[in-house]
Amino acid sequence: MRGDFSRIRFNRSKNYTATLQQQGRVELDADANEQRFIEDFLRRSETIDVIGEVGGPANDAGFEITVLNDEILIGPGRYYVDGLMCENLTNLSYDNQQFLLNNPMPASALVANLQNLTEQGQQGVALQVYLEVWERLVTALDDPCLLEPALGRTDTTTRLQTVWRVVAGLVTVADVQNPAGSSLSPCCQSMYNVQLPASTGTMCAQTSPPSDDCGCEPVPAAGFQGIENQLYRVEIHQTGDQTSATFKWSRENGSVVSAITGISGSTLQLNSLGPDANLGYQVGQWVELTDDTYQFGATPNQPGMLYQVQSIQPADLSVTLAGSVTPVDPTQNARMRRWDQTGPSATSTGIPVSAGPIQLENGIEVCFTDGTYQVGDYWTIPARTATGQIDWPPCDSDGNQYQPPQSISVQVAPLACVHWSSSPNLPGTGSLIIDDCRRFFSPLTDLTPPVALQAMHVAEISWINDDIMTLDQLIANGLVVTLDQELVSPMTGANFIVTIETFVLPPNVRDIQPGQMLPTALRTIAALDSEISVDSSVITWPLPDDQVLSYQLPLLGFLDEVLLIGAPVQEWARVRIKLLGAAIFGATLNGAPLYLDGKAFGQLALRQDGSTSRIDLQLPSGSHSTASDFDGWFYLAPMLTLVSLVVAYEELTVLTDAGGNFIGVQQTGVPGQVDPTATVTVNYPAAIAATVTLALSGASGVGTVAGIPASVTIDPGQTSTMFPISIIASPPYSTTYDFTITATLALAGNLPASTATAGFSVTGPLEPTQ
Q: How far apart are CA 674 and CA 63, in angstroms?
């Protein structure tokens, strides 16, 4: 804080709770300010203890991020960051924030870049939105209302102001799983791990005669030689280490500052040249020029440019600076601040940081340790004429000669993570998905004493909730639910309920194109019972395996045919799993059995196709109740099988050039070169990607005359895929090689694979006439 203070004093380790006035004693600004620091520390600490580092009230949480017509909007309400309350009074546009100036990328560009990068295939790209919060000192130059007309508009007190702003940037988020029990998406979780750079360098101050030693051990003759009490401020001007960082210093805590009302070249028009000679400007002094764009730009609290005063014109309150001046904007609260460094080491970029000693004035010298320093790091050094000494190490410090800096602490809180998807089924505005990264707390009046209810919970399930599974996968793997306690209750279709909702064929299905999703669909519901087994805490619901498949096969075949009804329009059967919490119990605890607390809360996730949204379940389950039901579901697709393998050109003849060199093939008897291909087709548009293995056989020429890929993939929503047949050499003259392609699509488990075959032949060129 660059105010006109006698000293800045507060030490939390002393556990002071108040400053108390005594009758007939002098009142100091430092005492009153220390009381404010004590109250601020207690208030912020209590707030953090109650609601955490960040949080919004559940009934009025502010800063909800929405997107409307490529405009990012910031919702009204309150949010707390590191104990500071941030309040947004209206629905605010991202581009119209008071404390976000010279924003390099407006909201529309951020949203457009998110869309472009995603559609170009970049994986994991997201727009992360943060709330930045810090405190700043406000003087009468910033708020004229602080001046009292009855006192001749004399400068009196200052204010501390909470500054908040919302910032956003595009990042690539790693594909990580959401931690168990967390309501935040993985993208939001990664935002809570942001680490801001911290300074590691320290500074020592001492009074001593000029010396090459900076041991910070005063000698008997040392002392402060000034004639006035001062509060020296040493502030880092340029970020870096001992080889690159610079600093500036002021004997008035950097509080001598004037408003710039106009600028013409190197001449500045000011509102004041200071109240007196000590608190004014002199030729040769260094001054710093800033405006709000330095304090509230994309990177906040940046230093201004340093210039030397060349001349002063008291008559018109103007100052001319040496050299070419980078203009500042008087409409953006432009300021000229005085600094007091002198001599050849003082430059337009500050004084180089070094191990020292570095002389300031009046016997005060400083030295710096090797480390890193951030812009705005500062130390204050009270100097007193009554003792001829400086207060170092500060009385509110840990007593070490080398002290870490104070700094403007910018706190960061995640608000939202925005994704783009081309899928029309995703929630949000257009194709945007917005993960809310805020944390919430309830009013104390809404809280009840926690009751530690003992129960069992669902720890793991074998299916991907709200995703697609094929019938062969269900037959091979069944359904497995793992609890966190050993079961005692029997498990049957009465308390482990599996139902299937199958698609009903509409009368006008012929008017529907394959792959077209229906806006309204009718389903029939049937229960599926199976022989359930229990192994300690693991419940397994199986369909028939290979030992009983022979007499159950007609049932499974019928089920597969039912599933095929909706497959052309990608309407899959829905399978629901319900575990009755009050009818599933484990061992007795304190005379009462443990029941299943199965409630699992949903959260946004993506299906296996990487683009369609789904509802994931947070596990382990539980809502702190004695018993509750577990509900899960997935979509069941029929078994995918091959129905055909078709070769485009079954009879091929090799083409050669005039020199007899192989150049390609033609369809036998048809002029013109062709590219032979084959197409595999399955029985319905694939629900999930399926791999078809390929094999080429023949008496001769496999791999030397003809070749095919080892496999091809049927993409989701597709019924076929084409692959090339490579003719890489020619059979002998007038010789025909016959080849057979075998395509195989395996099913899960022990179910038989489906195959399809097709043949083609390659004939060498006619033998040339002798």
A: 62
The amino acid present at 760, given as its one-letter code, is F
Closest CA to 582 of 402, 484, 456, 401: 456
- Looking at the fold, whether 570 and 426 belong to one and the same domain comes out as no
Report d(CA 509, CA 558) in Å as an integer: 21
Euclidean distance between CA atoms 29 and 25, whole angstroms: 13
Alpha-carbon gap, residue 467 to 641, rounded angstroms: 20
Enclosing domain of residue 232 = 199-390
In a domain, 468, yes or no: yes
Q: Among the three residues 621, 637, 653, which one is the final residue of a domain in this structure?
A: 637
Residues 332, 183 share a domain: no
| Residue 85 shares a structural domain with residue 143 | yes
Query: Per residue in 175-206, pLDDT tens?
Result: 544 444 456 888 898 899 877 888 999 999 99
Strands (E) in 668-735, as ranges, are 673-674, 677-682, 690-698, 706-707, 711-714, 720-724, 726-727
d(CA 218, CA 559): 92
Which residues are within 8 A (CB) of 770 and not within 5 positions of it... i.e. 6 or more apart?
A: none
Q: Is 116 helix (H, G, I), strand (E, B) or coil?
A: helix
| Mean pLDDT, the chain, whole residue set | 88
- Indicate whether 404 belongs to any domain: no
Same structural domain for residues 358 and 433? no
Q: Do 203 and 129 share a structural domain?
A: no
Same domain, 582 and 615: yes
| 312 and 276 both lie in a single domain | yes
Taking Cα atoms as reference points, which of 41, 50, 168, 37 lies closest to residue 103?
Answer: 168
Q: Is the pLDDT of residue 451 over 60?
A: no
Question: What is the b/e burial string over 202-220, where b = at least 16 CB atoms within 10 angstroms of the residue's CB?
Answer: bbbbbbbeeeeebebeeee
Residue-level pLDDT at 211: 54
- Residue 423's pLDDT band, with cuts at 50, 70 and 90, is low
**What's the CATH code of the domain at 687?**
2.60.40.2030
pLDDT range class, residue 553, cuts 50, 70, 90: low
- How many DSSP H helices and E strands does the chain contain? 6, 50
Structural domains in the chain (count): 4
pLDDT in tens, 133-150: 999 999 999 999 998 888
In a domain, 226, yes or no: yes
CA–CA distances in Å: residue 538 to residues 258, 458, 487, 615: 75, 10, 8, 24
